[in-house]
UniProtKB/TrEMBL annotation:
Biological source species: Echeneis naucrates (Live sharksucker)
Entry GO CC: plasma membrane
Keywords, sorted A to Z: Cell membrane, Glycoprotein, Membrane, Transmembrane, Transmembrane helix
Annotated InterPro entries: Anoct_dimer, Anoctamin, Anoctamin_TM
Membrane topology term: Multi-pass membrane protein
Residues passing through the membrane, by range: 262-288, 340-360, 405-423, 429-453, 474-495, 589-612, 640-664, 742-763
Name of the protein in question: Anoctamin
MF-aspect GO terms: chloride channel activity; protein dimerization activity
């Protein structure tokens, strides 16, 4: 077991500041725009604080004094652009770095990896594949090391070449932010207020951020600058590199594991989309080639069949009779997406999503090992400052044996508050979305009939010029879409604030817990918000119709300036990072993942469009984070967090959704029932187990004399019967206009299809999940090797410590023995 250090050992005692306040020294800018150091050129800048000279001077000075008492070194420099702005440069000396590296369990190298890596199956094509990877001359492959959590007492056992570069800038910034988040700025009695977050919210500081190492488009000439931002822009974010694989190790090194795992997931998802896009494109081409030869489209377009079928009006009073062959082109286009290839593709996508999730787990396990996050457990992640500030009760951690503070009343009412406030509020907002959808649907119906009435009223002369161009459907769709857009945007803004408030009230212990809780709440709302319309169109729209008569800024812009602007001020002019971090980036991709999987049976080209979008998305996100935003605070992350179970839930739901779309929305099942009908139904014209005659069999007959006065069409052309799409008994039958036997056979076939497909796909998913291990065998071996080396090092260290302690005791025992022997010799002589 590693030595677990309690944070209280290093916690700053604020009472020391009461008599002796120390102030941050000031220095003039040395006219080196790309310098990453204090004016002495020796001490590296680990963090930047920005403030304006305002009335909140006391808190700021107390806070800065606290930082210096905790061992950090500060240097203030006035802005060269705005005289009101001051920049505080923060540096962490070696001793402070060692102390907090141990507190944060930061893993550092102990020995180069001596296990032979498995050769890539693509090595024979290296002459071709090398062009699709970043330039190795610019971005060399990182050396692999076995690592262990840092400990000050065992410095000799860590792989330290140079102290200045032993802790990477990302590690240093992470440790600096840990101290900034816990340094006090005010004490009133027993109440201690601390943390840079509260000071930023209160306007004491205008910004706090780590530095970029150089300009993104100009290579720095300063000594000790790795120019990693420049390399990322050239080989990753630049549009010319769109075809190259991502330099994930460099992304992780520069931005931290949380950013790295996002781009790793996005890249892996895009690669997997390639296979789905190829199959989806093949399905689309098949449908496009067979649209002219499809039996049902030919019957619709045939003047002798579709041209002789008179269809009933599609609305009461105002709509007219129409011929079936007028939908010829629409029927052909429908056959492109509604064919037997769609069924195969839907089943394929259900298998694809399982393979995607299982292979991602394996790839994620490799990244966890390579990026030292395998043991990034709850006891290793420090608690949030907001949690520490409100803790009043200590509980012993059963794993580490260390006492952790927590809220006493939270233990008693946590479950009650979560059920009554958390879930209740989320359900309320979800129901609010559903209510808005119902309201918009009612609005569409009301507006449709209003526009229909006005456009057909011959007395309204002012609308005559619009009759030819404005239809009731167009007017209804446009206005309803605008209202829906406004409602969605308003609910998004309000719900985000509500979700953050609920999560703050829950007071999760770690930042990972906080983000997972917030992500789940936000996604449940966004899921309903984004997909409700799709579910409505797929399963509700047009399904409740009865028979007729009963119708229901860039980085170098400042350097165009005459003044020389330092590195920290260039970064200040960039965009600040959102408080929600990567949430909306993940949300955008997971929503897309839902469209690709949930409704792919309706649109096989969805994976193709998603693939094209993601190829741009990766580079656009890379360009934004590299050129337009301040450097992201590096954070550890083991995986993609709450998005993993969300993806699994979407994948499970996708099987049922696609099966029901094929069953209830497409004509697939009625066609199959018609094709495999061996006995001729009394109300179905069947031609020897072929598709001939299907169109006629799928249309029921309606007697126009059965129209009510409120539904009879104005344009009465003497037509006695018309057809409509359904399976009902004809007029004159004792059960006229009721569903016939064939209808119930189709319903039974649809239910059977859903059950069979779901069971087959779920069984296949289970078998694949069982056969594909989550962690590759090579990674397991490397983890075992690393643990063995760590134990050997610990054993040797403990043995030396024991030996060192026993040496004085052994010397004393030897002296006592010598004295006894001398006395015995004296006795013998006497």
């Amino acid at each position: 077991m590693y030595k677990i250090m309690e944070e209280e050992e290093f916690e700053f005692q604020p009472t020391e500041l009461s008599d002796d306040l120390c102030f941050c020294p000031q220095a003039e800018f040395n006219n080196k725009p790309d310098s990453l150091f204090f004016n002495d050129g020796v001490r590296r800048i680990d963090f930047i604080l920005v403030y304006e000279d305002e009335d909140k001077k006391e808190r700021r000075e107390y806070f800065e004094a606290s930082l210096m008492k905790m061992g950090m070194e500060l240097e203030a420099t006035q802005s060269v652009v705005d005289d009101k702005l001051m920049f505080i440069k923060v540096h962490m000396p070696w001793d402070v770095l060692c102390t907090y590296a141990e507190v944060l369990h930061i893993k550092v190298p102990i020995q180069p990896n001596d296990l032979a890596s498995s050769s890539s199956p693509w090595r024979f094509f290296s002459c071709i594949t090398k062009h699709f990877y970043p330039n190795e001359e610019l971005i060399s492959k990182e050396t692999e090391y076995f690592t262990a959590p840092f400990e000050k007492d065992r410095l000799d056992y860590f792989y330290i070449k140079e102290k200045d570069i032993f802790f990477t800038p990302a590690m240093r910034s992470r440790m600096a932010y840990y101290i900034l988040s816990r340094a006090p700025y005010e004490i009133r009695g027993n109440i201690k207020k601390f943390g840079i977050t509260k000071l930023l919210d209160g306007g004491v500081y205008k910004a706090a951020y780590p530095l970029h190492d150089c300009r993104f488009n100009v290579k720095s000439t300063e000594q000790g600058c790795p120019n990693e931002r420049y390399l990322l822009y050239e080989e990753w974010a630049h549009p010319k590199s769109f075809y190259k694989m991502q330099p994930l190790d460099l992304i992780r090194k520069y931005y931290g594991e949380k950013i790295g795992i996002y781009f790793a997931w996005l890249g892996f998802y895009t690669i997997m989309l390639t296979l789905a896009a190829v199959v989806g494109l093949g399905c689309f081409i098949y449908g496009y080639k067979t649209q002219e030869t499809s039996t049902w489209s030919k019957e619709v377009c045939d003047p002798q069949i579709g041209g002789n079928i008179v269809m009933c009006p599609q609305c009461d009073k105002f709509c007219k009779y129409w011929r079936l062959n007028t939908t010829c082109e629409a029927s052909k286009k429908l056959c492109i997406f509604d064919n037997f290839g769609t069924l195969v593709f839907a089943v394929f996508m259900s298998i694809w999503v399982t393979l995607f999730l299982e292979f991602w787990k394996r790839y994620q396990a490799e990244l966890e090992y390579e990026w030292d996050t395998v043991e990034f457990l709850e006891q290793e992640e420090p608690p949030r400052p907001e949690y520490e500030a409100k803790c009043s009760y200590e509980r012993k951690n059963p794993v580490t044996g260390v006492n952790h503070t927590q809220r006493l009343f939270l233990i008693l009412i946590c479950l009650y508050s979560f059920l009554s406030i958390g879930i209740g509020t989320v359900l309320f907002w979800i129901l609010l979305i559903l209510a808005s959808i119902v309201a918009i649907t009612v609005y569409r119906l009301a507006v449709f009939f209003t526009f229909s009435h006005r456009l057909r009223n011959q007395d309204l002369k002012q609308l005559e010029p619009l009759k030819e161009y404005v239809t009731p459907q167009m007017a209804t769709s446009v206005t309803a879409s605008l209202i829906s857009f406004v409602v969605i945007m308003i609910l998004n803004i309000l719900y985000e604030r509500v979700a953050i408030w609920i999560t703050d009230f829950e007071l999760p212990r770690t930042k990972t817990d906080y983000e997972n809780s917030l992500t789940l709440k936000m996604f449940l709302f966004q899921f309903v918000n984004y997909y409700s319309s799709c579910f409505y169109i797929a399963f509700a729209k047009g399904k409740a119709v009865s028979y007729p008569g009963r119708l229901t800024l860039s980085d170098d812009s400042a350097l165009g300036s005459e003044k020389v602007i330092p590195r920290w001020e260039q970064d200040y002019q960039l965009q600040p990072v959102s408080k929600l971090g990567l949430f909306y980036e993940y949300l955008e991709m997971v929503i897309q993942f839902g469209f690709v999987t949930l409704f792919v049976a309706s649109f096989p080209l969805a994976p193709v469009l998603a693939l094209v979008n993601n190829l741009f998305e990766i580079r656009v996100d890379a360009w934004k984070i590299t050129t337009q935003f301040r450097r992201v605070m590096p954070e550890k992350a083991q995986d993609i967090g709450a998005w993993q179970p969300i993806l699994q839930g979407v994948a499970i739901l996708a099987v049922a959704t696609n099966a029901m779309i094929i069953a209830f929305t497409s004509d697939m099942i009625p066609r199959l029932v018609y094709y495999w009908s061996f006995s001729v139904y009394p109300y179905v014209d069947h031609y020897n187990n072929t598709m001939a005659g299907y169109i006629n069999s799928s249309l029921s007959i309606f007697d126009t004399r059965d129209f009510t006065n409120s539904s009879r069409p104005f344009a009465d052309t003497g037509i006695t019967t018309c057809r409509y799409r359904d399976f009902r008994y004809p007029p004159g039958h004792p059960r006229q206009y009721e569903h016939n036997v064939y209808y119930w056979h189709v319903v039974a076939a649809k239910m059977a299809f859903i059950i069979v497909v779901e069971h087959i796909v779920y069984l296949t998913k289970f078998i694949l999940s069982y056969m594909i291990p989550d962690v590759p065998y090579a990674v397991k071996e490397q983890i075992k090797r690393e643990k063995y080396l760590t134990q050997v090092i610990l054993h040797e260290t403990n043995l030396k410590l024991v030996t060192k302690r026993l040496k004085p005791i052994a010397k004393d025992c030897l002296k006592e023995t010598e004295v006894k022997l001398a006395m015995e010799e004296m006795d013998l002589d006497l």
